[in-house]
Design a protein that fits this description.
This protein is α/β, with parallel strands linked by helices and about 280 residues long. The strands form four sheets. A three-stranded mixed β-sheet has the order 1-2-3. A three-stranded mixed β-sheet has the order 4-5-6. Strand 7, helix 8 and strand 8 form a beta-alpha-beta unit. Helix 3 crosses helix 9 and helix 4 crosses helix 8. It is flat. The N and C termini lie far apart (about 55 Å).
Length: about 280
């Protein structure tokens, strides 16, 4: 027989357990920039060539470099800059300097900025964010960093269908890499779906271009088919933003094609997921 004291204890234990589970669910929403950021900040000078920038980004497998002048962070140069401001225009990386394409001023947050604030600023500034501690650069936060920590809250339970890009750009496997690079640069997109006999089978991204070609000085006139990432990792329409973020983090990717009835219906990116959370 359960005594009144034991019943009270049982109820209190249950309340504590419920509170603890709620605490664990809520904890991610209180994360700060210092918990989200990458500590290894790679820098470059404004006078450096974009050839050097591409090589460094490719070797480090990163998509951006903080530009520093006289020991002061002044801007950022990204893989997208190389595509849209150089390759898409038929220019050569070796002939252009970082200062010609970098974005400035540098968008930044403090170490103690909360995850929601970071997400909103990232979307409004359309940029990766530098993290500062009393004026000193200590880290950088990208969309990929953010999606690793997106909390399981109502705003991340919305479906990817609401934020994905529905017009997906694709190209045949025999298309040259230089043509793919120009398409991405002109349309300011980070990937192209690669098809074989009209069916999607792989994806070629700006990171593939950077690490496999630009960083190594490899010729861009080869066919894209053998160079694309495959098999294609996809998610079904109706997937939640939170589950899509978890999939990206687990697979170490930044883009997910979305399928409906076994047909390509769109593509969702890490930045799209951050935007969904920031709403």
């Amino acid at each position: 027989m359960v005594t009144p004291q034991e019943e009270i204890k049982r109820k209190l234990t249950g309340v504590v357990d419920i509170a603890y589970e709620q605490y664990k669910r809520d904890l991610p929403r209180y994360r700060m920039a210092k918990e989200l950021m990458s500590h290894d900040v790679v820098t470059i000078t404004p006078e450096a060539s974009l050839d050097d920038a591409a090589r460094i980004m490719g070797e480090k497998h990163i998509g951006s470099l903080i530009v520093v002048k006289y020991h002061t962070p002044v801007g950022i140069v990204t893989e997208r800059d190389l595509l849209s401001k150089v390759l898409a225009l038929g220019l050569f990386l070796r002939d252009e300097k970082v200062e010609d394409v970098m974005s400035y001023p540098l968008a930044g947050v403090s170490l103690t900025a909360m995850i929601k604030e970071v997400a909103k600023l990232m979307i409004s500034m359309k940029s990766r964010l530098a993290v500062f501690d009393a004026g000193t650069l200590v880290g950088i936060i990208t969309a990929s960093d953010l999606i690793k920590s997106l909390p399981d809250v109502p705003e991340t339970e919305v479906k990817v269908d609401e934020f994905m890009t529905k017009e997906v750009v694709n190209a045949d496997e025999e298309t040259s890499v230089i043509s793919i690079a120009k398409i991405m640069g002109r349309q300011r997109i980070g990937s192209v779906i690669i098809t074989r006999k009209g069916e999607p089978f792989g994806i070629f991204t700006e990171r593939d271009l950077l690490t496999t070609f630009l960083a190594k000085g490899k010729a861009l006139f080869t066919e894209v088919g053998p160079e694309c990432s495959q098999p294609l990792i996809v998610i079904p329409a109706g997937t939640s933003v939170h589950r899509a973020a978890a999939t990206m983090a687990l697979k170490h990717i930044r883009r997910l094609p979305v399928v409906r009835d076994e047909k390509l219906a769109g593509i969702i990116t890490a930045r799209d997921l951050v935007e969904a959370y920031a709403k």
